[in-house]
TrEMBL record:
Domain Fe2OG dioxygenase: 190-291
InterPro entries registered for this protein in UniProt: DIOX_N (IPR026992), IPNS-like_FE2OG_OXY (IPR044861), IPNS-like_sf (IPR027443), Oxoglu/Fe-dep_dioxygenase_dom (IPR005123), Plant_2OG-oxidoreductases (IPR050295)
Organism: Oryza sativa subsp. indica
Protein name: Fe2OG dioxygenase domain-containing protein
Superkingdom classification of source: Eukaryota
Pfam families hit by this protein: 2OG-FeII_Oxy (PF03171), DIOX_N (PF14226)
Keyword entries, A-Z: Iron, Metal-binding, Oxidoreductase
Family affiliation: Belongs to the iron/ascorbate-dependent oxidoreductase family.
An annotated Gene Ontology molecular function: oxidoreductase activity
Amino acid sequence: MEKLLSSSGAAAAVASQGQLPDCFVFPADRRPPASTAAVSLPVIDLSGPRDAVRRAVLDAGKELGFFQVVNHGVPPETMREMAAVCEEFFRLPAEDKAAFYSDAEENPNRLFSSTIYEVGDQRYWRDCLRLACGFPVADDTNTHWPDKPHHLRDVTEKFFVATRGLGIELLRLLCEGMGLRPDYFERDLTAGDVIINVNHYPPCPDPSLTLGLPPHCDRNLITLLLQGDVFGLQVSYNGDWINVDPVPDAFVVNFGHLLEIATNGVLKSIEHRAMTNSAVARTSVATFMMPPMDCLVGPAKELVGDGGQPQYRTVTFREFMRIYKTVGARRDSVEKAFKI
């Protein structure tokens, strides 16, 4: 458990010493510079007229690849309960979480720290609880999840169903806006597990030297982030970084690289990163919609056009993941690996 910051108490010990261990210190050219961007992410009210909402979602996706949504249909109490139970999980004693800790990436349900993105010899300042769920939800789904706190399983299952429904609705809006059949993404491309990452960033002794998550693009179709009320997310924009200010009862939405491939580059997967702070812990909940491993992912024929050329090659999701892990999660590397 020495790797796990919040479970082992290492973060508190480090903070009390007032210095950051060398393994968390990024090289000077990769440390987080101060953001100067004055751009804000669009906040889209999904309860508005459908035509206007459809245009807003598509325009935000094309311009920024990120936006926030409110009045989205996920009950506020479901969001608050999920945020609360996740924070409660990370406050549990280390011994209550030890059995769930694993470095095995093939394990879909586990607790881990700093093991997703290859960043050289540096570690980044995050613990993560990962939970997987198929759809429709099977009776035994949550038996593979932690049994503490006692209400975690029920709250998380309710959150899974609600956020997946929101993701499907956003994908339908995108289909309508791009001239695809409304259910284009509702078959194989969203038939895999829904994955939840509960990201926990303990207070950091020196946020200027490290990152909670390094710059990366997502590997899935669409991501919904419940970011809480503590700032930390930044989005790449024209060579700078946009601060994503928390909006009450909102989800931050972004597109994964699979959606960029499926839309033949109409929509973009944009790099983002997580900052740390020295004052308070930050916990966010990211929901990822995924295809099954044998699903073929390639540009939609409708978006290639008669006589046109696809910009990306078609691969299975298994092959996509193999290459994604090999080249790393940086956008330029992923783009180069799959673009024709």
